[in-house]
Design brief:
This protein is mainly alpha-helical. The protein has one domain. The protein has helices spanning about 15-25, 30-45, 55-65, 75-85, and strands at about 15, 50, 90. Helix 1 crosses helix 2, helix 1 packs across helix 3 (about 55-65) and helix 3 packs antiparallel against helix 4 (about 75-85). It is globular and about 45 Å long.
Length: about 100
Amino acid sequence: MPTSLPTLTRPPIVIDANLAVWIVLPVAAAMENSVDRLAQWHKQKRRIVAPDLWIAESTSVIRRLVYFKTISLEAGERAIEDLFSLGIETIPLDL
C-alpha cells in the first residue's frame, strides 16, 4: 500500500523597505530587477510578507527623497500609494 508524502510548502518570501522603495520609485537603483522579481513571485503564487514596520520605513525613505528634492511631491505621493498595491502581507513583529 503506497504511503502519501507530506505536502511540502514553500517558505514565504520576506522583503524589506529597500526592496519596496526600489519597486515603487524609478529613481532607485536596481528597480527593474526588483519589479521583475516581484512579478515573478506573484506569478508563482508565492506568499510575500514583510514585518509591519516596512510601511513606516518605506514611507520614511520616500519622505526623505521628497524633502531633498530627489523626487517631486507628486512622485512621492504616487510611490506611497503604490506601496499599498504591491500585494505584500504584513506580519506583526513579536518581540
